[in-house]
Design a protein that fits this description.
This protein is mainly α. Helices cover 64% and strands 0% of the residues. It is found in: Membrane. Its EC number is 2.3.1.199.
């Protein structure tokens, strides 16, 4: 069964100071089609993730804990840096959309 084709407003130009090459070449319809056809795959990943979480808890129940303070500190700093870079990349576009099109357009699919 084919999914209905979504109509998007293609006349909206991003407000980026620099557009990366992969952003110019990105064809969202191909990825959207793949996502609509393969959305059930996520449930398998969730199942494997939960098995690791609960299996790991059971496995480590009677074992000494790992000393992960330094590793977790590096992980958290890396995650914070990644989040800051993402915010710096998306915040100008978000402000542009809010100022020119409003809150509805920033949340909902523009028609």
């Amino acid at each position: 069964m084919e999914s209905p084709v979504m109509a998007y407003a293609y006349d909206i130009t991003p407000n980026y100071s620099y557009i990366f090459e992969f952003e110019n070449e990105f064809i969202h319809t191909d990825y959207r089609k793949w996502m609509t056809e393969n959305w059930t795959v996520a449930f398998y990943y969730v199942g494997v993730y939960m098995a690791f979480i609960f299996g790991g808890q059971y496995y480590m129940q009677n074992r000494p804990r790992f000393e992960l303070r330094r590793t977790l500190m590096i992980w958290n700093c890396s995650l914070a840096a990644f989040s800051i870079m993402g915010a710096c990349r998306t915040l100008p576009e978000f402000i542009h959309v809010l100022r020119n099109y409003g809150i509805y357009h920033s949340i909902c699919v523009p028609r």
